[in-house]
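Quick one:
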Amino acid sequence: MSVLSTNPKFRVAICGAGIGGLSLAVAIGKFAGHDIHIDLYEAHNIITTAGSGIAVSSRTSEVMKELGIFDSVSRVSTKPPSSSDGPTYRRAKMPHGGFKWFQHTPKLMPASMHRQDLIDILMQYLPSSCSLQFNKRLTRYDKQSSGSLILHFADDSTSTADVLIGADGLHSAVRKTLFETLDQGIVDPSKIRHYSDPSWSGTLIYRNVIPAKKLSELDPNHVSLRGFLLFCGYKEHVVSYPVSQGTQINVVAYVTDEEKAGTPFEGRWVSTVSHEEVQESFQDFEPACFENPTRWALHVVNELPLAVDDRVALMGDACHAMTPFYAAGAGQALEDAFVLGRLLGHPLITLHNVSAALKVYQDVRLPFAQFVARESANMGRMLNFDMSSVTRGDVQKELEIQREKIVAQWGWESKDSPIAEWLEAERKLQESLGISNGL
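Output:
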């Protein structure tokens, strides 16, 4: 049950109660108190998650600490076995068993956790200023001359808001309406659908979670029981790592055809498939364990020219749904929430100038999130690299070149920090409002 401030500065509607939307509600509650009322709308009757595992990197941990949820997350996350145990990369396109290629140990090893555990924690931290409503699927919104917004839902109900945040994922109705209603001349009309519609990446993902005990009984020496592993091969690779404090093994297999990227995907985007289909796709691959796998056609959001229109903003997957090869999608949504929540809750921000806060959020977060999305796609290409044309004498040399490229690719995590992003956002906000030396 929500508790309204006697005189809230304005009312924020967040469409989508996934990781991004929940994190934003927590951030606004932490940094604005009861000065902002939050209406959080979820399309389903429960909060569901896509996928199973989340990597909790040093950047993500930094945001979690700022939001006050880090201790709760630590209690349910799976820590690396030791500081020396980084992800192990294997050359795996061989049916009778692959071989260890190399092990990469970053300065700070990420932990891992189940997505549902993070959802449950964020629910516990929702502020009393937040009203969470289920079965509210946004279909469109209308802008009023006063600047307020009327939200239209699939159940024919409506609601009003002063600010609207689209955290409604890949199929975002907020993104669709934003681009379809932009003032003439802002973007090329022929590109509207390119921005509003999801785009197939050319990759199929087979997802599977196996109880660690069951895998151990099947094969006590199975390599997937040893920590975070990446099995690499041409046009396909597999990632496995423990979740739920090591009681389950998350296994995700990728098959990529880059020539199909951007083409329409025929068939259901998500479906349950047979074990035989996975085996056929990986018939020349190091054996992997799958039980009741699901297949996902991996779609992304094409790089957007903007993420804000007046009092409407996009965040998380609605803004920059990316490939999962960095396991950074959830982390980037958390960074969006942190910066946006602090901006909305800033003492300088009122209803009169809230659009300035949204513009600063876009200028700080959109370029970095899109950079991560591009580099994640590059990482996927590296994991799928082709060795078929390399002569036998050059194999080791080529493997070393690729190893160096992959290790260097992980350098993005040390590029600035979420705190640095926030300080840059606050500086830009003060400049935009004509303030140069703080409050």
